[in-house]
Amino acid sequence: MFTSIQHYHQQLISGETSSVAAVKNYVEQIKKNDRLNAFVEIFETEALERAALLDAQIKSTGIKGKLHGVVIAIKDVICYKDHKVTAASKILEGFVSVYNSTAVQRLLDEDAIIIGSCNCDEFAMGSTNENSAYGKVYNALGENKVPGGSSGGSAVAVQADMCMLSLGSDTGGSVRQPADFCGIVGLKPTYGRISRYGLIAYASSFDQIGIFGKTVTDVALALEVMAGPDEFDSTADQHKLNFSSSDLSGDANKKFRIAYFDTALNHPSLDKEIATGINETINLLKENGHVVEAVPFDLLDYIVPAYYVLTTAEASSNLSRFDGVRYGHRTKETVADLTHFYKLNRSEGFSK
Question: What is the pTM of this model?
Answer without folding.
Answer: 0.94
